[in-house]
Amino acid sequence: MKFDIITIFPHIFDSYFEESILKRAQEKNLLEICIHNLRDWTDDPHKTVDDSPFGGGLGMVMKIAPIYRAVQELKAKRARSKIILFTPRGKKFNQRKAHEFSKLDQLIMICGRYEGVDERVGKYIADEQISIGDYDLMGGELPAMVVVETVARLIPGVIGKEEFLKEHVKEGGFVEYPQYTRPEVFIDAQGKTRTVPKVLLSGNHGKIEEWHRKHGKLIR
């Protein structure tokens, strides 16, 4: 799968996508992450990507033309391709949506900045408008990282736990339950003892699975 991210701050992603599982997934060609500088699609000497809003306003608005040209060039001739714009007014991103995106061949993500993006981008260029929460951010770069990581985990081979995924990823969501590790007994600074549920130490796999089902929660 290919992730194409359009931004005016391409170096924000440098360290994040060059560490841990995402780095290894790219090295194994399980996925491709391409960061694109929107200024490469401007047509003036100053590489202008924003302008003042019609009707007035507090800040600048990102222009439609460079974004249109970028998307036109990046969009592959594939049936399973989608363009998303990050905005607080968008549809809430969740695990079900991540499953939907994981079936694509290409996902193009438009990262806004300043006071926002020309409304015509959301209406006529993007296939979907996405939000990662009911709060305002400085731009779409953090949401892009969230989407890439959430979707990447669902691509076969990326996290290397295929049997686990088959069992625990269900109905467009996943099962999350409490987990513990050593030490079996932990005593905090106030002298309070914190222990691990005995069933998890029993070695009885049937009982452990029953405990997982009882305490698990389906996240969608």
Along the chain, the helix and strand elements come as: EHEEEHEHEHEHHEEEEHE
CATH topology-level name of the largest domain: Alpha/beta knot
Question: How many structural domains in the coordinates?
Answer: 2
* Rg, Cα atoms, Å: 22 Å
- Total helices: the number is 7
Could you give me the name of the CATH homologous superfamily of the largest domain? SPOUT methyltransferase, trefoil knot domain
Structural class: alpha/beta
Query: Do you know the CATH architecture of the largest domain?
Result: 3-Layer(aba) Sandwich
* Measured distance between first and last alpha carbons: 22 Å
Low-confidence stretches: none
- Count the E strands: 12
Broad CATH class of the largest domain: Alpha Beta
- The order of strands across the largest sheet is 2-1-6-5-7
Q: Report mean pLDDT, rounded to a whole number.
A: 93
Beta-strand portion reads 15-25%
* Global shape: elongated
For the biggest sheet, the summary is:
5 strands, parallel
Helix content: 25-40%
